[in-house]
């Protein structure tokens, strides 16, 4: 056991100057010395594996345009609601962070000012994954060697600005630099997929693929639903004035996504309810909503649940893997939504339920070899209670990676601790990042591999797994499982 | 601190050949070296204590017949739904695993083929308690020294087959080999307890005892409820055509269980609700159900809740300890239920509630010295929120051991971490295994003792407990508490 | 790695005689050697910081009278429901512990007998925070050097009795001895604050302050509500016969609390619901209740929710920080309540909900710089699911310290592990003790500082934080944040 003094020296060596940023090679590996040594060996076998990024939110346009990133603030602060919400939570106005206003009103445009605000408040991120990812991005991606602070803000800004001006830092070039083998964008049902077509023409068709996300088309009570249905008619060539035509349009769009290389669909609903409606009742409700009639919250939720069932049925036909992301109450603060729009950090989880909610789909398709659903949650209580028992029984189910707030060192560790004993490792999907912050993708995958290495190392030291098995499992979780989980089912 | 190299050697020594199965003496003890050393001392004081098995599901007939086990697959795979569900979850058909069909249709009968499927898929069990128990059974009980795999399947089969043919491996002989001091079977209210009578005649009357489980008689909406009530009349000699007669029959059966050495009842309900019904309303509902009238799901649940209250009342009279196991939605996949029947791995937990649900029984009997209830859950969220506060106040309550999916290394650890601070150790029941896999019983008790040793070792090292106290507590948890928790209350 | 023998010696050194009580300097620091060494350094920087005690339940009268404590049992056992409930849970009658009866009936008055019962049952507290606090109190505050047991009970009694007779052990003198910089009492809306006035006259006005707790005035269905409203009229000089007058009286009382140095309000509700009622409907319901008309449970809860909204509005005007403590079902066992009254260990948590419940208040005041709410829970599931996401977004919110059953080593550790990654450290309030056991206050703060040091040490060793940052954070959590979280908002 090292003495306190030795320890202090060791710690100091890693953090020799409070102003000097460097990534310790053992970061996020277990604190315990024996566990760390085993974890290091396991991590060593996965660190360099290519990345499979099947739940990305980088826009296809970013790759199609392949322009240099604007500036450090516009790249790393303004669009990242993990970052802006933390600054807002301490009383900083979103507008002063350059977060655009819905009404086009004035917001801070001086990117240096925004960047300084961020650096000055660096301590707020202590203990958060945002801090961890940001350090990785700064050091590994942009070659920054200073810890953010009021004093270092400008110097860091300059370093990043210089780096993103280099030709090797354009989006498509970063794919190689980041070892991204496959990345999926997230696209609305009405997307014409033009950017994907362009990218396919440039040889990226199998590397950058779309994911079909029909949320805006299935929530009758969301603003703009009728516009979405009209757009759906246009892009699909189907007549969506009837419910049958609406289904036909969705089927047609799914076909177009498959043709564009798509492997999956994605569904963000308030609940995981999948109860189907009677076909006649669904058609009547659809017609009423389309005619501008009143639709209650309950009716809208029933229709959304029904559409999960319908999409599951379609997945059996076209083989697209179904991703379900329930349990988030969007736009909790109306004022923020009205001033700044969606995805501004005010989406708050609610308690989730899967056992009863998924039963209709699982009764029908749960054992169908053509069906595959990957489940996500921001309510950890369902890991051991519902998700692991379900995934440990139904062949169609896989558990997705810890999602959103849970995509973090402690969150990932708890996921393994609470899900593995019942679901095993092989009913999980491996890592799926979930970000619009492109530059953070390598950090996220790397963190997952480190945390998994730590968990597996403990199993090895507790003699619950051999080292050989642990390494094999780690490789499967980092690379093999995401590929097989998202392979298109043969219809 | 060992260097990585030393560590590697140490790990290798434990797993020197990937094909060679051996149990490390420190398995499931804490990974940390200091904690492990203390845990080893604590565990050393409990490892050899006899087993008290008060929630078993081995059939009394198995002991009464005392025949050799059929073969490895029929012993270790086919009847264990923990094992078959995991294989099913990866697309293997239950029929190909020999799981009998309700309609008597064909299933795999080649036990070697079933065993090979199991061994070939050994990796699916990584990180699960099934893997841990099975390793223990193979190595400790059957003397197997090979790791399961496609290549080793036949050799392992031969080793087990030879061992179970030995006279010392019959069920009654294993009681001694396993150091089982007391084992309870689980018997329906209509059981004539003939096997127990036979075993009593052979001198096993105080070692193999029945537990009274009236579930089939109290759920009005289950298939076969009326047949159960008719059988109840027959075995009890009471006229169950009225509600009063029904209660009389239950009272009479409980008496017979007490006479046969029974110490406890067991209740598996969807919820923990114990709200009593008005006696007249209960009688009318009973009469309607018996006459084949319509009973709604709500009415059936209300009656089941009422019967928990009634059984609590009866426990005050006859002193049987009441075990409550709520929160599982049985037979989630109807198709599997219809093809293969109950207990096939498709029982999925739902959120549990105890605070309000138990209030009626606790208001009435919670301080009654004649009453004892032991509570189980598969929803961990209630440990710190509801169960520990309840058991830490009401003298009639004890917390049962982590149950079902939670009967696992991480599950047990979390139980101690979340329940102990509020309930203390002495409001828990100690370990209660819950299995129909007879050969896994020693593994389960051993694992519990190891995990508890690890938890107690941490408390010692954090100076929250002396080593002497930790050892005393460990012995109490492993042996003393299960005996005292299940001692019949003096009425 | 120490050998088992070395370890045994080391452990023995700390616990050399089972009868000899001594506090190990490293107690409650991490078991792991490396983590402990770092934690020790961090803890060293916070151990001596003054205490900010913003949620105390010591009566103002105790300080105003400043009398010696009665005797060991009356000081440490009888009034502490954490202690009595544990003894009750093992079948000991509250009356035999001297817990007063509502009807004034006989209870044990021999304090030595009560103390002996407590000491004889010392083992029940193993693994609980009560044990940890009590050891600290005995050793640090009262200089006891014996472990409680049947044999040592009288000797310990004598030691404490002698100590509390010393002039330095009176309540006001203990403020200095305990380094309490600021302590808040909890006072009903109808309190005349006479003791605070007296203390202010003695120069304690800024050190001992009141907290405004209007619970009895806002729950229409609680016994004595009308008497409370009448008392409110009297003390405020407002006419509470109308709803408007009732609001005026509350406003006036809040003003008086502000004048007496109060910084906060406190609200104990069954749920966190903050839905406002229509003003007319609230007035009518108030009038009906005041006239003795029937008020349903739903109506009473709706009114209580409304009053949370109203109090939030008032906080924006007078700057009092709002503390919300929901989710406890009070007086679960009616018999205990009727015999012994409130706060006797039979308050049991229920599942909590914050996301939807707080929305009305947060929509309106969540971004108002004059508003501050500090949230508490006894349902841990909301930490990562609801509370951290809310506090990590809304500038008005802070997360309070782990509360009640969760104010414990494991509870605190889980709080940091589940809340920090999303809320950060700086959206928490730092430590707030919650006790009527005055002598346990230093133990509670000290424990919190040790657990936080352990958590921060792990982050340092995982290279997620520098040691310098960890120390700064620890100081903020122990001292700076409680002061700033509870600073009165400028209206």
TrEMBL record, chains A, B, C:
Q: Which UniProt keywords apply?
A: Isomerase
Q: Which domain of life does the protein's organism represent?
A: Bacteria
Tell me the GO molecular function terms.
glucuronate isomerase activity
Which first-to-last residue range defines the signal peptide? none
Under which pathway is this protein filed?
A: Carbohydrate metabolism; pentose and glucuronate interconversion
Kinase listed as a keyword: no
**InterPro entries this protein is in?**
Metal_Hydrolase (IPR032466), Uronate_isomerase (IPR003766)
One Pfam family this sequence matches: UxaC
Give the EC number: 5.3.1.12
Catalysed reaction, written as an equation: D-glucuronate = D-fructuronate
GO biological process annotation, one example: D-galacturonate catabolic process
Protein family membership: Belongs to the metallo-dependent hydrolases superfamily. Uronate isomerase family.
Q: What is this protein called?
A: Uronate isomerase
* Taxonomic source organism: Sinomonas atrocyanea
């Amino acid at each position: 056991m090292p003495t306190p003094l030795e320890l202090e020296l060791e710690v100091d060596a890693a953090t020799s100057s409070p102003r000097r940023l460097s990534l310790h090679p053992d970061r996020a590996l277990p604190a315990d010395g024996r566990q760390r040594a085993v974890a290091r060996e396991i991590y060593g076998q996965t660190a360099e594996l290519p990345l499979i990024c099947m739940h990305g939110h980088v826009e296809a346009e970013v790759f199609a345009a392949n322009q240099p990133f604007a500036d450090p603030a516009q790249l790393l602060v303004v669009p990242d609601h993990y970052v802006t919400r933390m600054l807002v939570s301490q009383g900083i106005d979103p507008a002063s962070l350059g977060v655009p206003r819905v009404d086009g009103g004035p917001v801070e445009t001086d990117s240096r000012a925004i960047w300084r605000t961020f650096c000055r408040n660096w301590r707020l991120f202590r203990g958060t994954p945002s801090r961890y990812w940001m350090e990785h991005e700064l050091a590994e991606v942009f070659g920054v060697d200073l810890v953010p602070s009021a004093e270092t803000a400008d110097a860091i800004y300059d370093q990043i600005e210089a780096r993103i001006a280099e030709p090797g830092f354009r989006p498509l070039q970063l794919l190689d630099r980041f070892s991204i083998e496959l990345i999926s964008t997230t696209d609305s049902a009405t997307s014409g997929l033009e950017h994907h077509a362009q990218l396919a023409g440039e040889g990226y068709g199998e590397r950058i693929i779309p994911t079909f996300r029909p949320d805006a088309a299935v929530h009758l009570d969301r603003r703009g639903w009728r516009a979405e249905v009209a757009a759906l008619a246009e892009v699909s060539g189907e007549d969506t004035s009837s419910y049958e035509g609406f289904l036909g349009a969705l089927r047609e769009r799914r076909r177009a996504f498959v043709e564009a290389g798509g492997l999956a669909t994605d569904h963000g609903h308030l609940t995981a309810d999948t109860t189907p409606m009677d076909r006649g009742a669904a058609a009547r409700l659809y017609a009423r909503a389309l005619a501008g009639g009143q639709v209650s919250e309950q009716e809208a939720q029933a229709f959304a649940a029904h559409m999960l069932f319908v999409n599951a049925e379609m997945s059996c036909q076209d083989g697209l893997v179904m991703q379900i992301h329930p349990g988030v109450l969007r736009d909790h603060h109306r004022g923020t939504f009205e001033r700044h729009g969606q995805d501004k950090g005010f989406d708050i989880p609610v308690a989730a339920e899967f056992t009863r909610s998924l039963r209709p789909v699982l009764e029908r398709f749960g054992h169908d070899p053509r069906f595959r659903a990957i489940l996500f949650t921001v309510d950890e209580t369902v890991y051991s209670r519902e998700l692991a028992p379900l995934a440990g029984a139904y062949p169609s189910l896989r558990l997705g990676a810890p999602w959103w707030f849970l995509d973090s060192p402690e969150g990932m560790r708890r996921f393994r601790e609470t899900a593995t004993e019942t679901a095993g490792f092989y009913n999980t999907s491996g890592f799926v990042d979930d970000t619009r912050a492109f530059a953070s993708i390598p950090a996220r995958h790397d963190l997952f591999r480190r945390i998994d290495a730590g968990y597996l190392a403990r199993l090895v030291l507790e003699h619950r797994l051999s080292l050989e098995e642990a390494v094999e499992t780690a490789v499967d979780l980092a690379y093999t499982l995401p590929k097989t989980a998202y392979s298109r089912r043969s219809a």
